[in-house]
Amino acid sequence: MKVEDEAEEPETEPAEEPAEEPEEAAEEVSAAEVEDEEPAEDEGDATISAQATSGTCGTNLTWTYSSGSLVITGTGAMKDYSGPSYAPWYDYSSSIVSVSIGDGVTSIGNYAFWTCSSLTSVTIP
């Protein structure tokens, strides 16, 4: 009977080895993604890089965000923003420190800078 008891002991060590392979693959992907990204301007917020981002905020207006500065250029009125319709620079709003409005901008939209909690300087011609 003692021989049968010894034969029934399960071996658990080999089952652990395959679990290591997916972790290594995930690490390689993460390293590749980090290498392709621009370094963050503010090390405390790695999601916002120093690379400029831009878009439209009115029929003939464009906005550009880079390193804490938001610049609005073009001609005409800025679109109004309210409720769930946030300004297109919303993802950067907590990092915007200064805003510069160009000469051709005829009006600033409602709630355009509502979530810009770090805003300390606005230049309007």
List the helices and strands and how they pair.
Elements (H helix, E strand, L loop, with lengths): L1 H6 L5 H4 L3 H17 L16 E6 L2 E6 L2 E6 L1 E2 L20 E4 L3 E3 L13 E3 L2
Parallel strand pairs: 3-5, 4-6, 5-7
Antiparallel strand pairs: 1-2, 2-3
Task: List the defining traits of the structure above.
125 residues; alpha/beta; five-stranded mixed β-sheet; two-stranded parallel sheet; globular
- Element-by-element helix/strand order: HHHEEEEEEE
Distance between the terminal alpha carbons, to the nearest Å?
A: 96 Å
Strand content: 15-25%
Main sheet strand line-up? 1-2-3-5-7
Quaternary class: single chain
How much is the average pLDDT?
73
Helix tally equals 3
Helical content class = 10-25%
Runs with pLDDT <50, length 5+?
1-7, 15-49
Report the structural category: alpha/beta
- Number of E-type strands: 7
Shape: globular
Please give the radius of gyration in angstroms.
27 Å
Biggest sheet, in brief? 5 strands, mixed
Q: Any overview of this molecule?
A:
With 125 residues, this protein is of the alpha/beta class. The chain is 22% helix and 24% strand. The chain is built from 3 helices and 7 strands. The strands form 2 sheets. A 5-stranded mixed beta sheet has the order 1-2-3-5-7, with no helix packed on it. The chain has a two-stranded parallel sheet with strand order 4-6. The longest helix is centred in the first third of the chain and has 17 residues, at 20-36. The radius of gyration is 27 Å and the shape is globular. 13% of the residues are buried.
